[in-house]
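Predicting holo structure, zinc ion bound.
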Amino acid sequence: MITKKCLVCKTKFIGRSDKKYCSDQCRNVYNNRINAALSKDIRKTNRILRVNRDILNKYHLIGMEQVSLFSLISEGFILTYFTNMYKDSEGKEIYFCYDMGYQLSDNETVQVLEKKKFEKNLMGQLP
Ligand SMILES: [Zn+2]
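Done. Tokens:
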């Protein structure tokens, strides 16, 4: 038993060397803070992924399969956020945001793809 300082309320207490909090209450406060920060980060990431997915889906619904990269980005699409990446038979990456995906072409256009159309071809790569 040694004298310790609580990580939450800074009160000094006597306890085992691995004890970090003076009480269950302070331990709960600490864990809630960590969970709140994590939830905020997860919500932010989910929001970005959902925006990406909805932009792709919008083009899919109006039958536009080729979209300029500039259009996507100016609508708020963030290329570095995706849920999965697969490679087609030629080894080219297809990035998915949930059920919608895209593939970059050389001329700065994007091919919009629906995941279910590729599920047969991508068997083995899909979770
Ligand atoms: Zn405390």
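Strands lie at 2-5, 12-15, 66-68, 84-87, 93-97, 100-104, 109-114.
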